[in-house]
Amino acid sequence: MNQVEHSTLGQATEYPSHYAPEVLFPITRAQGRAKLPAVPYLDQGIDWWHVFELSWLDHSGKPQVGIGRLAFPAHAPNLIESKSLKLYFNSLNFARFEHQAALVQQVEQDLSRVAGAAVTLTVFAPNDLPVSEPQGVCLDDLPLIAERANPDPTLLRHTDDDAAWVADQQFYSYLLRSNCPVTNQPDWGTIFIRYSGKQICPKRLLAYIISFRRHNGFHEQCVEQIFADIWQTLQPQRLMVYAVYTRRGGLDINPCRSSDPSWLAQPIRLARQ
Questions:
Q1: pTM value?
Q2: Interval 153-199: pLDDT, tens
């Protein structure tokens, strides 16, 4: 079993100057999921990554650049440690490909092998990745009613009106913050929650999101914990949790989990990324 402590994360590293798929470092998802409540749907969703430092050589040796969007299925047994992915993409900087489709094919083959499921890559021209506006009700102007040093699902409550039921409720907050479990560097994100069931108390939902502020966890694990805590505590009919993280090292990670495939969010990029 690969342990993240054995990866290059947080260590001085030499960047490869040739194609080096061997640098990719898998981390089994089962490690993080074993610590969560036993709820369904944690393997139903996608982790979208944006690769802002994507460059390769064409058949003549001329450099090419683009922005890559990766889609890792949540049912893949492994996620890929982010620094190893950065090193992998840097190793492509001096690799020649006959055409862009050949690059895409090679990347998808390499990442799918390490993740254990089919990973896809879409390449955008540098100016073609649009910026989106958040949808839903922003929680951030609400007062903070409780402060916790660690994620606390007991903060989550329904509204006082037991009869209140909503078919489709959408919230978002820019205040998600957590820390890398290896380097302790802060990770900043925007969290989107779509919900059907007895109405959530918005103030308590905001307090719960802010309780991650000192938490150490990978992006994917934080999203799965939020999904698991809401699902277990509030017992919704349907739920979607999507976090859009700011980039670090030329990469951003955007995990989404949804109980209903039709609610699976479309990948977006916000201005703060």
A1: 0.93
A2: 999 999 987 668 888 999 999 999 999 998 999 999 999 999 999 99
- Answer for the pair 238, 48: CB distance below 8 angstroms, yes or no: no
DSSP H stretches of helix in the chain: 29-33, 82-91, 100-115, 202-210, 219-234
Kindly tell me the number of DSSP H helices and DSSP E strands found in the chain: 5, 10
User: pLDDT tens digits for 58-84?
Assistant: 999 999 999 999 999 999 999 999 999
Residues 6+ apart with CB under 8 A from 259: 40, 41, 44, 231, 236, 238, 239, 240
What are residue 55's DSSP bridge partners?
Answer: 65
Read off the tokens for 6: 């054995």
Active-site residue numbers?
A: 180, 187
Closest-CA residue to 235 (of 202, 198, 201): 198
174: three-class secondary structure by DSSP: strand
